[in-house]
Write a structure and sequence with these properties.
With 210 residues, the protein is α/β, with parallel strands linked by helices. The chain is built from eight helices and eight strands. Helix 2 runs parallel beside helix 3.
């Protein structure tokens, strides 16, 4: 199976979001980082922006990553906005199993993520409830950080435990680091500046596919 590429909107030109989204339609998913300024030390955008982008009728799957303390109370907002997959953090303040069940009850894909300092074993009790795991290879909150290769064993451990699981990797993904993540077992790559920071978005996307 070909590696999936999910451009991270956080690195896009926010003055030209419609045009930017149209230029990444050679990718597979659109990665949408929602930050609350509490769970992570940054604030990005919320459901209204996602809803506006969804009206563009892009073919990209809307992959929403909730870096927020209480994802459970906002699920309806993001479902209505057009989210097709919702990822939240195992370190959040809500009941993890209940939040996963609530995402699935809304007909959406459910995924868990973990910060670099969180042991991968923390995810193991929930693996049979997940459509995907997102391994962060930077500290969540800001784009443009350097890839943390000490997180690669987490990807390998997840792939060994769940051969069919979709494993997404986000943080410092470039044409140079993408092969490392794929070799460890990743099959979906999130990239921000490696795509939106280039002149030719299509060429940048293909470079990540390898």
């Amino acid at each position: 199976m070909a590696v999936l590429v999910a451009p991270s909107l956080l690195a896009a030109d926010f003055a030209n979001l419609q045009a930017q989204v149209k230029r990444v339609e050679d990718a597979d998913w659109l990665h949408l980082d929602v930050m609350d300024g509490h769970f992570v030390p940054n604030i990005s955008f919320g459901a209204p922006v996602i809803a506006a982008l969804h009206r563009l009728h892009t073919k990209l799957l809307f992959d929403v990553h909730l870096m927020i303390t209480h994802p459970l109370q906002y699920l309806d907002d993001f479902a209505k906005a057009g989210a097709e997959s919702i990822t939240f953090h195992v370190e959040c303040g809500d009941d993890v199993a209940a939040t996963l069940a609530a995402i699935h009850a809304r007909g959406l894909k459910a995924a868990l993520s973990l910060k670099p300092g969180t042991p991968v074993e923390t995810l193991f009790p929930y693996l049979d409830q997940l459509d995907m795991v997102l391994v962060m290879t930077v500290e969540p909150g800001f784009g443009g950080q350097k890839f943390m290769d000490d997180q690669l064993p987490k990807i390998a451990a997840l792939r060994a435990r769940c051969p069919a699981l979709c494993i997404q990797v986000d943080g410092g993904i470039t044409a140079e680091t993408a092969p490392l993540a794929v070799a460890a077992g990743a099959d979906c790559l999130v990239a921000g500046s490696a795509i939106f920071g280039e002149k030719d978005f299509r060429k940048a996307i293909e470079a990540l596919r390898g």
